[in-house]
């Protein structure tokens, strides 16, 4: 019998047939292999002794329950007020609070304990994202010897920024307890290897893996994508985009969660600069969809007011009775509607200051009519820019450069638009989520699991034989060490 798959991610989809690229890919992998999807229960409540059955049909869905205190410390606190800003080069926004790190470790330890009750020795475990960095270490502590893979959906932090963590050396150790660490881009892999190279506990092996004490971990890039065909179909099936009188001659679009990493004020200013310097050609509007996110985190509270202020200023300056240059929708919009809006836009502004990949860039390309495609204006700091080199790449901090790219996108000849779109579409196909999940899981299956020694022998190897024997203690050693 082939190995079951255990997926851990912050959210588990509640619907039987989920939508959204990543979720669909994991759903398909779980359907194929059978297994369990583990995630946070959508509601907080008193601590539970075991994972809660969420009633999956083709595979099991189990949830861990967070208390209100856990949610504040682990999710809003350490994950989103420490790790997120560190990964997105905003150490100025990090909130240091002892209860955050304690909560993060406490929740990961509890999840590991509850997972250990439901996994079998042959299962392959795939853990997703920054909410769970220490989970493999906690599982190993409990004697779990399974193959464990980790995929990070956000940028790998700069190593100097890691020093802002309350316990910087723990970070490399957490990662070293995985068999395979997957990152979005080659640049992320380079940063991760730089961290290990600088760490006296790590040794770079000839096969490219890292030996870290008794652990051995491989680090590779697996650029994530979307379900290209289904997104393209959704875009085609949509009602035609709204009448032009609402938007001027054309519109450019932005679709983002409202987050400081997305570069929205800079984008609005760049659009203002485009309007300032507009003389001939199509006069476009900017449609920006940005639903609120993480509103209880302090750093997110000021962005909305800032954006509304800039949009109001630009509209006041350039608007006409029947035309507002910036339409800022601060609410979620149904996915199908987004697909149609992306298809109708002459250009997309995907200009984050830092972004692991940015799936909207790929969705915009997939949504286009290949015979008459729009143009993607893409930040160099989005992971997507590593492969989508035929987009118009910009430095989002440079308002003039972005304004020039907007003008260039709106006036680009059809032949060039088609050629650039075809090149970007190749990347979208090559990184389709189905292939992405298969490639990660194949690599995980190919990892030679370290021979893990548990119990008293582990203590002896660790040089801790004088300490009281803990039957649950374990460590692993690589074959070379044996
Ligand atoms: P992040 O994961 O940082 O939010 P991505 O661009 O990688 O950024 O992924 C965002 C996903 O959420 C995309 O699939 C996008 O279509 C979707 N999305 C973004 N904004 C909205 C919105 N306003 N309404 C619905 N879905 C959205």
UniProtKB/TrEMBL annotation:
Gene3D superfamilies: Glycogen Phosphorylase B. It comes from the Bacteria. Belongs to the glycosyltransferase 20 family. This is Trehalose-6-phosphate synthase. It comes from Thioclava sediminum. Signal peptide: none annotated. The lineage of its organism: Bacteria, Pseudomonadati, Pseudomonadota, Alphaproteobacteria, Rhodobacterales. Coiled coil: none annotated. InterPro entries: Glyco_trans_20. Pfam families: Glyco_transf_20.
